[in-house]
Amino acid sequence: MPDSAIAAAAPLESPGRRRTWLALMLLMAPAVVWLVGLIVLPHLELAMLSLRARVAPRVYEFSFDQYRTFIDEPLYWNTFVRTAGISILATFCTLLIAFPVAWHIAKVARGRVKSVLFVLCLIPFWVSETVRTLGWMILLRESGVLPRLLVDLGITAAPVEMLYHDATILVGLVYTSMLFMVVPLVSALESLDDSLIEAAYDLGGNGWSILRQIVVPHAAPGIAAGSIVVFMLTLGNYLTPTLLGGKNSLWFTEQIYAQFITRFNWEQGAAFGFLLLVLSTAIVWLGLKLTGQRFGDVMRRT
Amino acid sequence: MQQDLEVDRVTKRYGSQVVVDALSLAVAHGSFFSILGPSGCGKTTLLRIVAGFLQPDEGDVRIGGRSMRGVPPNRRPVNMVFQQLALFPMMTVGENIAYGLARRGVARTESADRVAAMLKRVGLPGAGDRRIDQLSGGQKQRVAIARSLVLEPTLLLLDEPLGALDLKLREHMKIELKHLQADFGTTFVYITHDQSEALVLSDHVAVMNAGRFEQVGTPQELYYQPCTPFVAGFVGANNRVAGSAVRVDGEVAELVTPEGLAVKARTSGVLAAGDAVEAFVRPEVIDLARDAAELPSAAQRFSGSVESLLFDGANSAVLVREERTRAEIRIALPQTGRFADLRVDEAIAFGFDPQRAVCFRAGSHAG
């Protein structure tokens, strides 16, 4: 009798508990396999690759050479800083454009109009990114639609080449990222109680002060979440800068691609990959610090 | 007497539906004015017109004698306490109260002094650094009122601010609101669907129904001299008896229900024999007696049996079925405890003075 009482009191030993535990493990298994197999293992491999140098055919030794090359070669440096800079700018532009859109969807539009607007934001994503980017090329290239229109309207004398500028890359990146900013912003703004805005207005606030003191603080986790996603996507984007920026786009992912594929220098490519990881982590961390937010709060909003 | 708020024949329509119907009202300086009505009667719309969130289709709102036509809410000398209070969760208590002051360009040091003084006056001294989610329901209420009163508005509008509180706290906050209003002397316009809040708090109450005022008066007038059947039925508990008038004798009319119950009551408005009539008898004006001879001589007498006992402390009542017509009547139990031993199905006599009951022509409304 006392034995069975003890057995019943030990929940981990009971068959019910064991079954729950097994179910939990089975449910988690795909995520664990995905995390370990596709993220942890490749990165461990990359880390090891990046920390060795080839001294003779098939002979490698431990070395920081790959990272030293990055520091010694200004081209790599410039590309690195440039990529970070344009990515931050693209994130900021996306936020500026997406905010009014999200505000309209969350607070102004009602019923059917709301879902239609949401679908309109989504529709470009039904087309593959390559096709969308090629669409931009058709619009912007020298013999394309927009330069032609400018000539017809008499604004420019001859067709202007609009591709292969930094601004073109920026436009492409913002266009690609819009949805990822709009979605978290809409959910953040929808949770803002309209009576807070009315109360602020009633107490003497005007549009600008309400935006700054009520709306933005409330939406801050959504803004941060959207910005993190957009920044990561932009920083790691390969197709848009390459197609719209041309040979001189100098995007860091192109450098990684070149090392791995063109030069077969996997060690150097791995080191670049790691540097990009460190860069994005550092910038996200800094952004959260500057705006006084916690990563956990932000991720709960996405 | 200076009128802090004058609403002049204001009309608001949504499509073909008239929500506020050519409504006029005046609220004297320093008074506590309530607008009482069932949900959907248009009281919130009226309040939002006064606050400036809605524009009236016709008519004008004057606050402190000044027309508010075209004046946006942030420029009106009016502040509003919202139903859900709408405190800013991203700010501390102090920042909430200082928000309006900052918008008016009050210097930081002066604003801090005024916030501290205001917190002390509403009984929350030193709470300026607390976060909103650290406050209890009653404290939030006080912060919401402090946030508005610190701006010294001509008029404070309150949109059912006690609705979200539990019963006990609501009773407590009623008294607190009354004290705050007396203390500050600011004119309060309060809207509610809870007649007890309106009666307890107000100097004057307007009973609103379907976009119009049925009656405006002191709580006592509304309770003892209702002008329309709606007011009689909405304010306080009442027994409603509908029938047709068989005899009108000066001030008193006699009506008979379809079931044959004959009731006499004081008339309100013009009545003629044959009119459809609604009579109202308050539970507390009906006397109970075990022996019909004990009833006052002026009373018309009935007999019946106890249907059920509704014990509620001082508000206890009994439902009695009239013997002949099976009409159900609610009668308040006297607080002397004389009928504490009453049993269901017990035979009982009851009666009331016709002067203390009131009857109207059915469906009549205020002019």
Defining key terms:
heterodimer; A: 302 residues; mainly alpha; MetI-like fold; 2 domains; two-stranded antiparallel ribbon; 2 strands; disordered N terminus; B: 367 residues; alpha+beta; Rossmann fold; OB fold (Dihydrolipoamide Acetyltransferase, E2P); 6-stranded mixed sheet; 5-stranded mixed beta barrel; 8 helices; 23% helix; elongated
Walkthrough of the structure:
- The complex is a heterodimer of chains A (302) and B (367).
- Chain A is mainly α and 302 residues long.
- Chain A is built from 14 helices and two strands, in the order ααββαααααααααααα.
- Chain A folds into two domains: 34 residues; 235 residues, MetI-like (MetI-like fold).
- In chain A, 76% of the residues lie in helices and 3% in strands.
- In chain A, α2 crosses α13 and α9 packs across α10.
- Chain B is of the alpha+beta class and 367 residues long.
- Chain B contains eight helices and 20 strands.
- A six-stranded mixed sheet of chain B has the order 6-7-8-3-9-10, with helices on both faces.
- In chain B, β12 and β13 form a beta hairpin.
- Chain B is elongated, with a radius of gyration of 25 Å.
- Chain B starts with a strand and ends in a 6-residue tail after the last strand.
- The interface between A and B is medium-sized, with 17 and 26 residues.
